[in-house]
């Protein structure tokens, strides 16, 4: 039994309370100051909250901490979700993880090219052209959401007309692995998983008959040539790419723009020197990390930072907290678009390091520079934008802005 300290309870740490959703960082600072490896019984399932950078990075790179299935196998309704997770690289350990990751990388990376960059630039401009006349927009639904959806749809070879469904699919799927999940969200996920499985099976049948220049055709070719990925793993990989490929990128663009609009000096600096976009995007990733948290389980007893973690205990690795650790990032609560070095953990670390990091960076740089270039007078329409009620994923419900002089 771990030594239970009550700091989480004393802080009233309810990750779904409005103050926490609005600004979780003071809570993280206090937890870290008490202990960077801290047992919390106020979350379900109970587990260790890792808020220190050194400890988070060490756990992510240590094979003694492993991935496990996160869907409780207690209801028939969750079965399709269990099937998908079982076959997703994100929830697997070597050697299956290594095999799936290598094959997916082989199919995906040839598509991350200069011509994709051109497509992203044109799409960003087209989306802004559609709202320019109005003088106001919801930055999330008019821009930050459709852009990555169109990009991942094009990459995978999924018809763009289906994109309205993707938002629903992705947000239902994300809730099934978030700390906020309930029996209702899990059942909704199970139903959605059915639809997704059918959708991709249909697409595979079409692509087998008529291969195209897209990632799905490339994955089918890799699978059929090397016979190293079964049909269920192929479906799970496509679902992972579809969900991971835009849910987080929407939030990077939205969170980054909110941070800039709240820091006019930094906005001005970036407008004056657009080449700062690379360090700026790294800073947005650190400052408001779209993936705030990931999970590992101890495969054996391990000591981390003088704390004994027992076999099978669950670890919440709070990337958003590690990225504000003052022992690594001077003035961590300050947004500094020139921060360098910036060794944030927003894409994770170790063998599960984000497979789409290159693409996400490319999209965010283009999206934000296009916005600043096309819309010279940007203002926040609301001083209290609404955050989504998720704990592990940080993003805005909407971000109304105006851009008339
Ligand atoms: C700002 C955008 C993004 C962020 C913040 C992000 C974050 C992450 C993080 C933290 C992980 C590791 C999770 C863990 O260790 O448990 C991860 C894994 C992954 N991401 Fe991303 N991601 C982003 C965009 C993308 C995109 C655009 C794609 C695909 C096109 C993608 C595909 C993946 C995949 C396939 C994995 C699993 C890798 C593995 O298990 O080996 N991500 N991502």
From TrEMBL:
Annotated InterPro entries: Cyt_P450, Cyt_P450_B, Cyt_P450_CS, Cyt_P450_sf
Pfam family, one: p450
PROSITE patterns: CYTOCHROME_P450 (PS00086)
GO molecular function: heme binding; iron ion binding; monooxygenase activity; oxidoreductase activity, acting on paired donors, with incorporation or reduction of molecular oxygen
Keywords from the UniProt entry: Heme, Iron, Metal-binding, Monooxygenase, Oxidoreductase
Similarity-based family: Belongs to the cytochrome P450 family.
Family matches, as PANTHER family: BIOTIN BIOSYNTHESIS CYTOCHROME P450 (PTHR46696:SF4), P450, PUTATIVE (EUROFUNG)-RELATED (PTHR46696)
Name listed for the protein in its UniProt record: Cytochrome P450
Species this chain originates from: Aneurinibacillus migulanus (Bacillus migulanus)
